[in-house]
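Question (not urgent): is this output format expected?
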Amino acid sequence: MIPTLPDDILHLLCEELSLKRDFDTLFNCAQANRGLAVPALTNLYRIQHVAPVRDGGDDEAIPIATQELVFQKWSILWRSIIASSLNGTLFPYCRYIKTLDLRDLSYFLEDDKLKGKIAKNFFAGDLSRFHITMDTPARRSGRRMVRLNVTSIIDAIGEVVTQHTPMLEQISGQLLSHALIRWAPRLPRLHSLELRDGKALEDGLVHASIHANCPQFDALSIYSWSGEDRDHKLSEFIGGIRPQSLKYMETISDAGIGAETFFALNSHSESLKELRLCLRTDALPHLSLLRGCTALETLKLEDSDKRTDLEKTQNDVFLEVIAWLRECTNLRNISITNFLSASSIILPLLLEDNIHIQRLEVDSYLVKDNRTFHQALTHQRSSLRALDLKGDGDDIFRDDVEIFVDSLKTLTELRELKLRGVSDMMRDEQFIPIVENLKLLEDLYISGLEVTDDLLEKVAELGNLRIVTFYVISKFTIDGFLEFVSKLGPGNQGIVLSVEMAEQNRLLSEEELDLVRESLAAKVGGRLEYTPFRDPDVSEFEGESD
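Got this back:
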């Protein structure tokens, strides 16, 4: 018997379960009694977009039978949302959702498991109207095959569902321009679009409809975009929505972004806080057109071509970009990848007293040419929480390594440290001083020459460590592993230890690995991933008999 509680207490209870993503408890609450059902289901469907059944359990480590069960649950989740928009369910689930992930729905419709009984049940009854097919030629035989028309199904389902989603804040997936124009008037709370294809923005009426009907719209993400005049069309969209409203802008791969889009983003110079752009090399000379966007807190720039060194080939642009970034005094998170001059762009920012960087990612640089960059990291030691460095550590001298290690030792507030390539010439004696000083580390990834139990022992003393990856020739022994496990404490709960290059001459036996894994799981619920090193210059068949 469940005691009767006031409605506001029930809602607070279910909201707390929602924050913890406790789907099982929310589901049990929904089944307990009618009074609990409404707050439980409301919160359950508000977080349906992060449900563990989504993506259908395609992890290869999951048994086939379990994958099929998860896929069936995935089918039921989408069927319940769609059916509720047709008044086919006891509760109006679709009215509770805040995120409509049509990208996930397309993955479901394209999955090979959608066949037989599951497909028949999914498209049964009122959902039969969405069983839209098309003829396509088979790849090999050339015969015509009947397949689901996923684009049309998504459009038809979105048309129905969006008429019953007053709480909807975010839509993602493969959308059509005319769909966005129709849907926007129904979605006064819409604030974010995550588009698989930027073509959805090509119709000029899209930005007009969003401007007129979605006053809270402030975030745009585009996976890719092919076609003509992409830069112009995107700039028209950005310039066509309410000025000073866009807070988040992202292009995940090539979307043709360039000078016109950069200029248009200045109409959101006061509101734009997060900018993540994947750029072609021919867009780099225009980067300084972003100079008005100085309210940025997060900046991620990626050169998709990795061909141009701005510092050497277009020094005027290089200096203008630095001047722009030095005005971004709220900048906290910076990632510049595939830029051949990334470290040189970041260096002046590290030395700015008014800039306090918390997360920094830089790659594509030579350790031997960047002593000053490494020394400048110490200027951010009080604020830096995450550091990800990737580059070339070859041809370095002892002084280069000492400066690098001495700088890293000072970054005592770090929670995450990832060294890939830049530490390839380092061993225990270089890594140990770093680990001994960075007591707050939660995530550690290192590459290097080789490491032994001596380093493993020091890593075990990191009381907050949850993820550690050794991408280095590892000479760990069974005793070293067991000593590591014995030192772990409550702060290491769920730790994942990955040994990616275990030395062939010191490999643990299956029995020893089982012992370590059992000990790790029993002590802190942790997991060991163990991979032998394979010399790329030696054939995997070498030494085997005919």
